[in-house]
TrEMBL record:
Annotated keywords: DNA-binding, Transcription, Transcription regulation
Entry's family note: Belongs to the LysR transcriptional regulatory family.
Matches recorded under InterPro entries: LysR_HTH_N, LysR_subst-bd, WH-like_DNA-bd_sf, WH_DNA-bd_sf
Keyword Transcription in record: yes
All residue ranges annotated as the HTH lysR-type domain in the record: 1-58
Origin superkingdom: Bacteria
Coiled-coil ranges (or none): none
GO MF annotations, alphabetized: DNA-binding transcription factor activity; transcription cis-regulatory region binding
Protein name: LysR family transcriptional regulator
Originating organism: Selenomonas caprae
Entry-linked PANTHER family: HTH-TYPE TRANSCRIPTIONAL REGULATOR, HTH-TYPE TRANSCRIPTIONAL REGULATOR GLTR
Length: 302
């Protein structure tokens, strides 16, 4: 398997047209066909359905597409890294995160790092935690920031805890729960306080089956109510802003908003929040990874 085969495959998967693929890659159509055919022969699998009128991915081709794109990405990243290694002109720092609201924290950490190291160029990858941790193990990411995943274990990967994060109750100022707390001058809420109200629950898709098939929840949920389920914290945050209900959100993912009330949850469990990284990659104290972790500790740890 070579890069030209993968380039032809991924480009054809996008265009579904041999002529356009050949034009984009500056190849002849017969050359594209030969690359696709040789790849299919090597894989012993048909990647495209071809007729005189159309081209479409087969189920195997569809499944292989993500792997092919990742292989190309890793290849070109390696080329770039090798070409700039000796000159030290540019160091790409690839950071994975699971929710758009983490951008505020990442920006805060990066600010002093970039101020002192103009050669560091951040690349951000927004995806589910399990997918980003897989990228970290396969050297497609340098860091993954977020909550510790109890299901993940790899001897080559370390986790630097930054804090024990707790949940905060996020609710629109006009919501009955917020009004009741204001009337009582409450600065925090208990489970009993929010039990009568509809909850907006955010559970990543990869945890959804695990949580509900076992008949338990990460946070207490009144199943008698018409609760709302969503996939990300940012979705839950925006629904709370719209007045759809309250949500329990990790405090580091709850940026303040003038129309929202943020109330600490008194019975909140605490979970480690921090940074995953490959142990070997952080041994160099001059590395971008080491500097990012150090800046994160200065930003968050008391």
């Amino acid at each position: 398997m070579n890069m030209q085969q993968l380039e032809c495959f991924t480009t054809l998967a996008k265009t579904l047209n041999y002529a356009k693929t050949a034009e984009q890659l500056s190849l002849s159509q017969p050359a594209v066909s030969r690359q696709i055919q040789s790849l299919e022969t090597e894989l012993n699998a048909k990647l495209f359905n071809r007729t005189t009128r159309s081209v479409s991915l087969t189920p195997v081709g569809f499944q292989f597409l993500d792997d092919a794109q990742q292989m190309l990405s890793l290849y070109y990243h390696s080329l770039e890294w090798i070409s700039t290694f000796h000159q030290q002109k540019r160091t790409v720092l690839r950071i994975g995160y699971a929710d758009s609201h983490a951008n505020c924290l990442i920006s805060k950490i990066l600010t002093p790092v970039l101020a002192e190291n103009t050669n560091i160029v951040p690349e951000l990858m927004l995806d589910q935690t399990d997918a980003n941790l897989h990228r970290l193990t396969t050297n497609q990411l340098d860091l993954v920031i977020g909550m510790k995943d109890a299901k993940f274990h790899d001897d080559a990967i370390a986790f630097q805890k930054l804090c024990d994060d707790a949940f905060v109750c996020v609710v629109n100022k006009q919501h009955p729960l917020a009004q009741k707390c204001k009337k009582r001058r409450q600065k925090s809420v208990s489970s009993a306080d929010f039990w009568p109200y509809r909850q907006i629950i955010d559970i990543p898709p990869y945890l959804l089956k695990h949580v509900f098939s076992r008949g338990h929840h990460i946070v207490p949920v009144n199943d008698e109510l018409d609760n709302i389920l969503c996939a990300t914290t940012s979705e839950a945050y925006n629904l709370a802003l719209a007045g759809a209900g309250f949500s329990l959100i990790p405090s580091h993912l709850a940026p303040h908003h003038k129309e929202l009330v943020f109330l600490p949850w008194e019975e909140s469990p605490h979970a480690p929040m921090g940074i995953y990284y490959r142990q070997q990659s952080a041994l160099d104290k001059n590395s971008a990874i080491y500097k990012f972790i150090g800046a994160a500790q200065n930003c968050i740890l008391p």
